[in-house]
């Protein structure tokens, strides 16, 4: 029986703060060294590279991607407890009417296990959301360091009754196989391989 090893790559544990305005020069968003573990450019540069113009009378929400945006889960936007926008991709601007919103961000199955970000948006304002969550990529290898496609499940260390979720690791040598990024609130997690 082969021994299986887990390699956990922590992209980011957490940053301090909440949603920040694009024009706040003293924020952590301006400090490039805060993003040295990301596989993407820092948030301000991601927004600049997107190159989308503002929409008249609307505000912009921008949740930066830590890795390949297509491999990170989409987030949802709520207003007054009601879902107003679903499947919002990270790394892309979302234009909304002025108002107060709650963003729900994360890979967890249960809403209670996801990051909640309060955002107040004004017309013409861009809000770059400073992450309060971390990114995790799970790679499973054998004793020869060959990548394996194996099922696994993640639990918060203090809650074995509620799974964060389960996925398969990727065999990176196979064409089209990509490793998804978990977005998790800061904490200690246990990974169980089946």
> Tell me about the biggest sheet?
4 strands, mixed
Provide the spatial order of strands within the biggest beta sheet: 2-9-3-6
E-strand count: 14
- Tell me, briefly, the overall form: globular
* Ends distance: 14 Å
Helix content: under 10%
Regions with little confidence, pLDDT below 50 for 5+ residues: 1-26
Supply the number of helical segments. Answer: 1
Rg, Å, rounded: 18 Å
- The tally of domains stands at 1
Q: Mean pLDDT score, rounded?
A: 84
Strand content: 35-45%
How do the helices and strands follow one another from N- to C-terminus? EEHEEEEEEEEEEEE
- Helix and strand content put the structural class at mainly beta
Q: In words, what does this structure look like?
A:
It is a single chain. The N terminus is likely disordered. It is built from one helix and 14 strands, in the order ββαββββββββββββ. With 194 residues, it is mainly β. The two termini are 14 Å apart. The protein has one domain.
